[in-house]
Structures are given as structure tokens and as C-alpha cells.
């Protein structure tokens, strides 16, 4: 466990806790637990009981569900400043998905009791949580529509276009003008909802069309506008 002060967190402005008064923010810093997770570490697993919520301070997390035959379906990615475990917190049910880090990450854990106390005191927190849940529902509906109506080629282009924003480095880096994605082909296939072989074949086509470059497992997006034209 490490000590991470919210005010020293680079993504504090993106969290739900920016409007807490000094006393409550200080109390939150004392009560929460902060941990460093290596890439590939499970934050929580499908079917286990939640005891609070998690706030991602740095790194990235993938949320996925495991089907009856053991196949993973990625639901979404979590970026710094975002909260995870909210739906299970309110439904009081076991986690319906698994959260695993895809980069070395720093994550804070807030107990159910402490978070409930903040919700009771700050009305804006509840509104922000409802807004976040509504956004997640909208994204899920859009993904369902895409899976049902778009051919695989268009779905992969849409996935890469969206990943361009998820993996894009913050700030201006003239040495890295393009977005680099290091997801496995299996994870990519899970996102698109198709076989890994189909993803590999289509990635090769996109490379020939100069939309992306491929170096080993790394995919570099060099023409997001071209991907957008295919996807939408």
C-alpha cells in the first residue's frame, strides 16, 4: 500500500471529488487505501462481492465479462480519474465483470461506508454518479447496435478510431505524433466481436491502405480520419 494525496494526483480534476471541502477531502485521504498494480493484475473479478469503489489514479484498466465457455468480452476501458465498481455498489450484487490493468497502474480504494457517507452529504456526487451510469448505458447501447448492424470491417475501423482517443498520449509530443496501441489481437477481437484471425487479416488490409502501421504487437494509428470514413 502507498500514500497518495488526492491533491497531488495528476488526474484529481477529473474525479468526482473536486468539490469536497478541505475537512472531508483530508478525511478521504486518511481513510482510503492506495495501491500500485502491475500490468495484468486483477482489481476485482467477476462473481466476487464488492466492498467499495475504486478510483484510477494512473494507468489503464480493461473491464470484461467471461462467458459460459470462458471467452472474454471486453466491455470498456477505464482511464485515469474514472471510478469503477459503481454499478455493483448500488445494486448490492456481486461484480458482473472483471477489471484487469493493461498498464502499470495506481488505484485508490474507498470503502462502501465512506463513499456512502460522502453521497449522503454531497448531492452533486449522486448526480455525477447517475450521469456517469447514464453515459455507460448509452455507450453500451451504441456498441450493441454496432455489433448487430455493421460488418466486421466497419466495426474494426470504429474500434481503432475509438482506441485512438483512449490511448492517445496527453499533451503534445512531437516525437510521437501518432497514437500507439499495444492491445493483443485477442483483446482486439473481443472488442470487435469476431475471431482473432479476422482481425489479423483486416489489420493487414488497413496497413496496406496506410491507415495504420504494425510493428510486432504494436499498432500505430496514422490516419484516424480514414478509419472514421470507413466506420461511419
Helicity, in percent? 40-55%
Name the average pLDDT: 92
Element order, helices and strands? HEEEEEEHEEHHHEHHEEH
Residue stretches low in confidence (pLDDT < 50, at least 5 long) are: none
Gyration radius, to the nearest Å? 19 Å
How far is the first residue's CA from the last residue's CA?
45 Å
For this structure, the CATH topology of the largest domain is Jelly Rolls
Write down the overall geometry. Answer: globular
- Secondary structure class reads alpha+beta
- Beta strands, count: 11
Strand order of the largest sheet: 1-8-3-6
Sheet with most strands: 4 strands, antiparallel
Classify the beta-strand content into a percent band. 15-25%
Number of helices: 8
Assembly of the depicted chains: single chain
> For this structure, what is the CATH class of the largest domain?
Mainly Beta
Number of spatially distinct domains: 2
CATH superfamily of the largest domain: Jelly Rolls
CATH architecture verdict of the largest domain: Sandwich
